Amino acid sequence: MKAAPTLSDAFLESAGSKLPEPLRTLRAQRGSALAEMPLPTRKTENWKYSSRYLKLTDELAASLPAGRKSGPALAVDGYHVVLNNGVVVPEASDFPAVDGVSITSFADLDDTTAQQLAERLDNTLDNNAVQMARLNTARFEDGLYIRLEKNAVLDRPLFVICQTDAESSGSVYPRIYVDAATNSKMTLVEEYISTGEQQALVDAVTEFSLADGANITSVRLSLEGENTYHIGATGARLLGNARLDSHCVGFGGPLRRHDLQVRLEESGANCRLNGVVVTQGKQHYDNHTTIEHVAPHCDSEETYRNIAADESHAVFNGRIHIHKDAQKSNANMSNKNLLLSTGAEIDTKPELEIYADDVKCAHGATVGQLDETALFYLVSRGIARREANTLLSMAFINELIEQIPVEAVRETVQARLNRFIEQTFEGA
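and the corresponding C-alpha cells:
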C-alpha cells in the first residue's frame, strides 16, 4: 500500500525570532507535533474535493520576507492595520485611540500577556478538522492581538490588510486574535490581497472569543491574485447572549479554502453566517462551515451562495451540530448555487446532526442555471443578452452583499463582482 504523503520538513523551519518567549515556545511545540503530519488526500473526507489542488512544495516552504509598507486596497473611512507577509507594519497602520480598545502586535506583547495568549491560541478550532491551522501556529512570525474591555465600543470599522508580496516563492502566516469582553462591540474587516508574480501560500488564522453580550461583525474578503494559494481558518466561541455576524466574500484562485467554526456555548448566543463565492477559468474555492449548538436557547442563520463559470469548481460543506443539552435551538442553513457554464462544477453538502428533541432546524441546497424564461423576458424588452445575464447573476448574490454593514466595502465588492460576471459573459 502506498504511504500517505506527509508534510515536508522544510515547512517546520520557523524563521522569525522577534516573538516573546511564550509564543516562541508554543510555536516550537506545534512544530514538533507536526513532524511527519499526513497531508490531506481524496480519502480525507473534508478535503475530498480540494486535496488535488493542495501543492505544498518545498519551494513554498520558505517564509517570505516582510516589512514593506503597504496601504489599504479599499479607500474607506476607518482604522487600518497592515500585515505585510504576516508581520505587522506599524508605520503603515492607523491604530485607534479609543478607551477600552487595545491593538498590539504579537512581537510587542510583554511576557505575561504573551503567556496568556499562548494558552488561548487554537482553543476556538477543532484542529483535527482544520489541519492547516496547526501549521500556522507552528510558523507565524507575528500577529495581531485585539482586546476589547468591558463595554468598549470601537466607533469605526477596523480594517486589517493582509498583504502578500510574492516577489519570490514562499509562504506567509497571518494571525489575528480578538478577545471581546462583556458587552463590547466592533466591526473587523479582513482584506487579503497580493502583489508579485511568483507562487505563494497564505495560511491565515483568525480567532474570536466573545464574552457575555459581546457583539462582533466580521467581514472577510479574499481578493488575492492568481498566483496565490490561500488556506484560511476562522474560529469563534460565544458565551451568553453574544452575537457574531460573519460576511465572507471570496474570489477563486488555484486553491482557495476557508474553514469557519462557531461554538454557541451559553444560552442566548447567536450567529449569522453569510458567504458569497465566485469562480471562473480553472479556479477552485472550498468553504467548510461548522456551527456547534452546545447550549440551549441559541439561534443560528447561515446563507451561502456560489457562482461557478467556465471550468471552475466551488465546494460548500455546511454542518450544524445540535448537542443533546441544546434544547430550544433554532438553526437554519441555505446554500444556493449557480452554474454559468456546462463545464463548471459545484459540490454542496449541507449537514444537520441533532441530538436534542425540542429544536427548530432546517437546511436546503439547490444547484441550477440561469432561468431561461427570465432571460427571455429581459431580452424581449430590449436588454442585450450579455447585460441580462449579468443582471440575473448579480441579483442571485446581491441579497447577501447588501447585508454587509460597511457601505464602502459593499460598493467595492459589488463593482468587482459585476466585472467578474461581465467577463464571464463576454461574447454572449
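(Above: one complete record from the training split.) The chain has two domains: 9-266, 371-428.
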